[in-house]
Amino acid sequence: GLDLANSKKELDAVTKDLIEDEGPRVKNANIIELARWAAFFSIPVLAAYLLLTQVADTGVLASWLGRLQVPRVALANFMLLWLGCFLGVCLSYVLRRPDFTLEDLIVKDSDFLMPQIRLLFAGSLTTLLVLFSKVGFLNVIIANTSLSSVFDKPLEAFVVGAVCGISEKLLSRTVNAKTQSLVNVK
Question: Over the stretch 32-51, which tens digit does the pLDDT of each residue have?
Answer without folding.
Answer: 999 999 999 999 999 999 99
